[in-house]
Write a structure and sequence with these properties.
alpha+beta, Nuclear Transport Factor 2, Chain: A, Steroid_delta5-4_isomerase, NTF2-like_dom_sf, Nuclear transport factor 2 family protein
């Protein structure tokens, strides 16, 4: 499986859980020590991820485009994406998203999530 295939698999799981507004499921795709930086102060671990997504408005959806991937080691993949977060009551917000995926005994999981706004 290519690095892009692995990243797409994880990103599709993340997107489906975000679009379903299922914060606990979103958090399940992160490692126990994951660093998470959305558009609010950062957190470490799945609990912070679940809290972040629980606070997102109902009806928010995510759609992404993979821009780049890099295999850093056998068990680490870096991904760079753009993500469009759509809302029912305001304009879509486009962000850059850097993901660091780690291969765990269970699956590839997100160990670092870093969002930045486009200018």
């Amino acid at each position: 499986m290519s690095t892009t295939d692995i990243l797409t698999t994880v990103a599709n799981q993340w997107r489906a859980a975000v679009n379903a507004h299922d914060p606990k499921l979103v958090a399940s795709y992160f490692t126990p020590d994951a660093i998470f930086q959305g558009l609010h102060p950062y957190s470490v671990g799945p609990e912070g991820v679940a809290e972040y997504y629980a606070a997102q408005p109902l009806g928010m959806t995510a759609d992404y485009t993979v821009l780049e991937t890099r295999q850093l080691t056998d068990d680490l993949i870096l991904g760079y994406l753009t993500v469009d977060f759509a809302f029912v009551d305001r304009p879509t917000k486009t962000v850059n998203l850097a993901l660091l995926l780690k291969k765990t005994p269970e699956a590839w999981q997100i160990t670092h999530y870093q969002v930045s706004l486009l200018p």
